[in-house]
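Q: My labmate handed me this sequence with no annotations at all. I'd like to see what the chain might look like in three dimensions before we decide whether it's worth expressing. Could you predict it?
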Amino acid sequence: MIKMKNLTLGYKKEVILKDINLKVKEGEFIGIIGPSGAGKSTLLMSITGGIKVFDGKFEVLDFDLNRIKKKNLIKLREQIGVIFQGYNLVDRISVLDNVVSGMLKDIPLSRAIIKLYVDKELKKAKEYMDIVDITKYSLKRCDELSGGQRQRVAIARALAAEPKIILADEPVSALDPKSAKKVMEILKKVNKTYGVTVIANLHHLEYAKEYCDRVIGVNDGTIVFDDKSEKLTEKLVENIYK
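A: Here is what I predict for the chain of 242 residues:
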């Protein structure tokens, strides 16, 4: 699904990541770890085609990101769900409306504006709210929910777009331990239930080891570890975090 070969990435003229070699298969659950400023977020968000490619080869879902055109960039991003640390929900509307907003590419604007949903859309929304355990709050405004609940709404909204890849940028760093574990469990459940490839940027090493099948360690703009989570020894962790 994702192929990076001798890849150099950055912003304007500044190189952030260099000599990146990475392959991601369908259905993997991958955690990216490393110290602050190492390039984790740049690596994660480059998958949406928003980071400049200086050198190397970069393919995502068969799209060539070295020379992708705007039309194909839109098609690529329609297949990628993104979950942010700050949730990025519309707080003044309901949980249901936020979840359905993930389907907007398939709903006529005239119906979306007046929130007129058909049975098929409501059924899908309920399915995604059920899997993240948020259905009982479906008619509540999102600003009435806790941080953990809001992040679960964000996951349901991402699922509503039926993505092939979900990118989670520090999805639990703002949450208390109980809520964080719940969110990680749901991401794992989504990965297994729908076969969606999940790539999560994580500050918590223990969550990477517990929930991810594979861990990528980034330091100083390059990948210094890429293997199964159970192979992440204390010595290797010291090497990743210096």
